Amino acid sequence: YNLVLHKYGLKLYQGVEETVTLHLLEVSKRCIESADEDLLSRLKVEWEDHKMTMGMIRDILMYMDRNYVRQHPQQCVPVYDMGLRVFRDTVIGHARVRDRAIGQILAELRRELHGETVADPQLIKTALSMLVELSSIQTLPAERGVPETGYRTGPPLPASSPSSS
């Protein structure tokens, strides 16, 4: 409260962002070092912990969000959204995490489509929910398409207009 009141809102915001980033670099290392079969479980634990922690940080910094962040939308997003963006960029954005996680999700979905039993459907649901939530902050890099589905990736096609004949 006092930092924002005395015009140190940007310094506080940047300090929180830096601290969250440093923590998530460690989380990213743990995910990178996880065995393939443990990666989605590790991501689930880290994601749920991160969301809970960011919720507490948001509650503590509510005054900064309501006053400083609202007055500087070109420089800042709300603290909770900033935390999700940093998770996306630092953890999921790391190719060794993203590619392995998406590969495992696709493998599990293929198993399901072929009538095989999926080991932990809730884990897949959580991983997909995480990706959807993170993509709502800003689109994830579309480096990896999903050719197995037959769906086209990329920007939507323009709507066709009626002919003026």
Automatic annotation (TrEMBL):
Single GO BP term: ubiquitin-dependent protein catabolic process
SUPFAM superfamilies: Cullin repeat-like (SSF74788)
Residue ranges of domain Cullin N-terminal in the record: 1-135
GO molecular function term, any single one: ubiquitin protein ligase binding
Any Pfam family the entry gives: Cullin
InterPro entries: Cullin, Cullin_N, Cullin_repeat-like_dom_sf
PANTHER family given in the database record: CULLIN
Protein family (similarity comment): Belongs to the cullin family.
Protein name: Cullin-3
Organism of derivation: Perkinsus olseni
Lineage of the species this protein comes from: Eukaryota, Sar, Alveolata, Perkinsozoa, Perkinsea
